[in-house]
Amino acid sequence: MMHPSSRLSLATSRNLPSARGFTMVELLIGITLGGIAVAAAASVMVSHMNSTNATMWAVQLQRDLSKFNFLVNSEANEACRLQSGTPPANDTVCTPGTVAVPVSCATVTGPATNFNLLVPMDVANNDPEERVITYSFNAGTGQVLRSGPRILSNGRLDATVANNQTGSVVLDGVTAFTPTVSNDCRSATIVLTLSVPTTTATFPPQTIRVAAGAEQFIR
């Protein structure tokens, strides 16, 4: 005779579902859903990284633009004449212009993207001689270049022409550089368009206004 507890155990075991593993279909569904979740997470991460990268570049370009603005305004403040196109020769005298009889520095020939500054400098016996600083645009590299007297460690310009520097990069990421000089050679506006590297984003056009700070004179 079977013990009552044995009967109960047997009945219970018959009512329990049999243990089994995952089927192949269930595994494939799980792998597919996992892959979709991973892809979605990766897409969100990549999008966040791209957005962060674009923001960092935009901040850096804004800093670079501020430095360029300070540089070109500082040098224009020492200039007696502003001019577009082909750079004038060193020692070109700053001929005065008036509203009635302008010098027409805005209509000279040569590259329209050149911005030139004629700066009088004390060379000997306090006799000023003019030196030329040129900002030019290289569309191929997206760079604004500076050529002319080198800047010394004390912030002053080196008057020795033999020490001039050519093609020093002062601004990167530029897609357009358009200087417009007034007829009297005393003021100018520079419109720049900057691009954000690794993206198709661009800054709105930026306008820099400069004015010659040195008095015009005839030697």
Description:
With 219 residues, the protein is α+β, with helices and mostly antiparallel strands. It has a domain at 67-211. It is 31% helix and 28% strand. The strands form two sheets. Strands 1-2-3-4-5 form a five-stranded antiparallel β-sheet, with helices on one face. The longest helix is centred in the N-terminal third of the chain and has 55 residues, at 24-78. The model has no long low-confidence stretch (mean pLDDT 78).
Shape: elongated
Per DSSP E runs of 2 or more residues, the count of β-strands stands at: 8
Straight-line distance between termini: 135 Å
* Percent in strands: 25-35%
Mean pLDDT level:
78
- pLDDT under 50 segments (min length 5)? none
The ordered string of helix (H) and strand (E) elements is HHEEEEEEEE
Largest sheet: 5 strands, antiparallel
Structural class: alpha+beta
Helix content: 25-40%
The spatial strand order of the largest sheet comes to 1-2-3-4-5
Contiguous helical run count: 2
Radius of gyration: 35 Å
